[in-house]
Known about the structure:
heterodimer; A: 12 helices; 70% helix; B: alpha/beta; 4-stranded mixed sheet; 22 helices
Amino acid sequence: MVVSMSPRINLYGIERTWLTKMNVVTEDRYLPWALLAPTLIIILLIAVFPLFYNLYLSLHFSNLTRPELGMRFIWFKNYVSLFTSSIFWGTFIRTIVFTVVAVGIEMGFGFGLALMFNREFKGKSAVFPLILIPMITTPIVVGLIWRYMYNGEFGFVSWILQEMGVSVHALLSDPTTALPAVIFVDVWHWTPFVFLLSLARLNSLPRSPYEAAEIDGASTWQTFKWITFPMMKPVLLVALLLRTMDAFKIFDEIFIMTQGGPGDATEMLSLEVYRQTFRYFNMGKGAALAIVMLVVIILISRVYLKVFQKQQEAS
Amino acid sequence: MKKFSSFTILVVVIGIIICFSFNAMAFDLAEASKPYKGATLTISVMAGYKVNAILPDLSKEFTDITGINLKFESIPYSETLEKHMIALATGSTAYDLMNIDNLWFPQYVAYIRPIDDYMKSPTLGDPNFDVADFVPEVLQGYQWEGKTYSFPEGYFFPVLMYRKDLFEKHGLTSPPKTYQEYYDYAKKLTEKEGGKTTVYGVTLQGQRTGIFDEICTPYWGKGGQLFDKKLKPIFNNADMLEVLTIYQKLYTEGFAPPGSTDFELGEAAAFFAQGKAAMMWNWSMMGADLEDPSKSKVAGKIGYAMFPKDNPDVVHYVREASTGLCIPKTAKNKEAAFLYIQWLNSKDTLLKVEAKYKCGHPSRYSVMNQPTVKNLFPYFPILEYAAKVNAVRLVPKIVEWSQVDDISAVYFQKCMIGKLSPKDAMNDAVEGVERMLDDKGYYFEDKDYSDLLTGRYK
C-alpha cells in the first residue's frame, strides 16, 4: 500500500479538496472504485444483470400468453427439451455449416483482396470505396436488396440465371440453393471487413524483412509464406474471431430473405430464439436457447484465444 | 262533460309510458360521453388494412360528437402481436384500444377486458346496437367462454378468384367444383410461349406464414378435422394426403410460379394483378384493390366463387378472419374506449365504412344488404352467401395456434417443393404438433375439449 508523503497531495498527485477529505489510507483504497463506479454500474445494468436474469429465466416455464400459469421453476427441462429435439440439432448443425463456409470464404477473399490492394495500380482510389459499400450497408437493407435480387419472378439474379439456361433460378425457393444463396449474401456483406483489417495490417508491416528477402533472392511465394503470412496471423485471427462470433448469430438478413425457409433450409439458431420468444412467447425456452448460443460462442472464442496466445509466444 | 271510461284512461296512460320509453331507448352518444369529454384515447392499429387507414378521417365525427380525442398509432402487421404482448405483459398503460387479428385473440384474452357489462349499462350501452346483425361466426371470433370482448370491423375469408377471360379462352364455363378439378383447370390454364411460362394456372401462398391456411381450406372442404376431442392432431389421413399431393403437383409440375415459397397474400395478389395467373386462392378483401384499374391489369376480368368443396355435406369449411378493437385491462379510459368501439361498429358507421370508403369487407348483414353497398364489389354476393349458408368457421381457439400453424408449415412447405413426400410431411407435422401440445400440458388430464377449442365443425 502506497501512502502519500504530503497530507495535502494524494497518491495521484491531486490536491486534496473537500471531495477527497478522507484520510489518506481510505482515499487510496476507495477512490479508484469511486471513479470506476459509474461505468461499472452501467455495465452491470446493461450486460451482467440481463445475463443472469436470462439464466434465471431459462430455468423456468414462462409463457406471456398464459399469465395464469405464472412463472414455474422447472430446473433444466427447457435444456432437456432442446437437446432431445431433432429440430434443434438440425438448426445447430446448419448454423455451424453456415458459419464455417461463410467465414472461410470471407477470410480467403478478404485477405486476397488486401494483398491485391497492397500495391499501386491505376484506379485504386476509385475502386477502394466501392469495395467498402456492402460493409456499411445496414443488415436489414442488405436482406431486402438481395431478397428482391433473388426473386424468382422479377429478380435480377433470377433473370441472369434464366438467360444462362439454368433450370433453378428462384434460388431462395429451392432448399438446395437457398443456403448457398444466403451464404453468398453474407460473404458479399462482410468480406470488406476482413479486407479492411488485412489491408491496414499489411500497410504497417516493416519493410526490412522484405528487403532482406529480396537480397536473398526469395520468390514471391516464399516471401508470402515465410514473411507476410506469419506477420499477418495475429490480425487474421482477430478478424476470424470477430467474423465467427458475428456469423454464428446472424439474424437480420435471413429473417428478411427467407424467414428460415423454404422448409427449414435456412433456419438458424438466432431465428429460433426469435421465434420461441416473440412468436410463441415461450420466454423460458427462448432464454435457454440464447444461453446455449452464448456458451458455444464462448467456447469458440476460447479456442481462438488459445491459438492466438500460442502465436504470440511463438513470435 | 262525458266521463272517460277506465279502459280509455288505461290506454292513454300506457301510450304515454310507451312514448317515454322510446325516448329512453334512443341512445344519445353526446350525453353518454359527457363524463369523458377531453380524454384522449390511444389506439394501436395494424398497418395494411384499409379500414385502419381511413379510421382517422372517419373518426372525426366521433370526436365532434363526444369531445374525446383519438390518437392512432400504426404498427406493421408482422410486428403487432410481438409489440402488443410485450406491452401487455409488462402492464403498460400506453394503449386504450388494441386492433387485433381474431387469429391471435386467444393469446390476448388474459389481458383484455370483456365488454358485456358496458353493453348492458343504461348509461353506456346503445339498446339499438343490434349484436344479432353481425355474422355469428365472425362475432364468435371475439368471444371467449360466453363473454364478448369486441366486435368485428370487417369480415373476410379465402375465396377462389379466377380470370373470366382466360376461362372463356380455354372453354371453361364454370369454376372448378372439386380440388382435383382445381388441379385439372390449373394444368389447362397454364400457358407457355417459347419455352417460358407466360401465364400460370394458379398462385400458391407457399410462405411459411400462409401455406397452412391455403391447405386447410380444401382439407376442411373434404370434411377433414385437425384435432379430435382430446386435442390430439389427426390430420394425417387420406383427405390430407390427397390435398398435399395435389398441392405438391401444382408447384412441382410448374402450374404455380417458382417464387411461390415467397408468396403470401400480398405477393400472390400482386402477381395475379399483373395478369400472370389464371386462378388464385386469396382473402376476399384483396378483391378491393384487384378491381381498381389504377392498381390492377385484370380489373373487371375477375370472377369470384366459393373455393371448391369436395364433400357436399360439409357446411363450415372456409376460415374467416376479421380485425377488431379490444380494451386492455390496463387501459386508462375504458368507458370512453367502449363508446368508441360501439360507435365504430354501429350500423351507421359500418355502412359509411363501405358506402363512402369502400373497404370491401362488411361484417353486418344489414350493411351487406344495403342497396348502396350490395353491388360495390363483385365478390360481395359471395360474402353474403357464405354468411347465409354458414360456410365460414374459426381456427381452433387455442393459445398455441400460431405454433400449430408454424410447425405444420415447415413440413408442408418442404412437401410443396418436393423435398418431402405428402405422407411424410403430414406424419411429421402431426408428430411435431402433438409433441408441442404435450409439452404445454394439454394431455395431462386426458379430458375432452370443447368443439370451439378443437375447431371441430360439421
